[in-house]
Amino acid sequence: MQLIQVSLKVNGKKYQLETPPNRTLLEVLREDLRLTAAKDGCSSGECGACTVLMDGKAVNSCLVLIGSADGHSIETVEGLHKTGAPHPLQKAFVEKGAVQCGFCTPGVLMAAKALLDQNPDPDEEQIRMALAGNLCRCTGYTKIIEAVQEAAKELHHE
Question: Which of 2, 44, 110, 137 has the highest Cβ tally under 10 A?
């Protein structure tokens, strides 16, 4: 099989990869770069467990062929705690009890981060819309919404 050259910046670090063109960004993140927070929940873009940021926008990495990610900047949950301390979203999710089984949490965190990066003071409806592509079977979303609101307050004060 023919291989393609791909350049990515993932969590601030540059990577040059040689990979088959039919692989997804999710596969490369998990298998090649060993960044396993993004999950493969459905392989069809329905659940959002694989959500990462590509150039600041939330995307389902299971739907992005690796060639389409060439030259782009990717951020995963592993890149949230740049200072060594938890990101305010991570901290709020724990404090508000928005983490239960944890399978959806990385994707939800990244979708919430994309929202807060663009809108530092979202209302509940805006939060719900931003997280509409992320399915959670455990929490019922109330605690997740509370956590995003709490993180927005903390980030707003920073």
Answer: 110
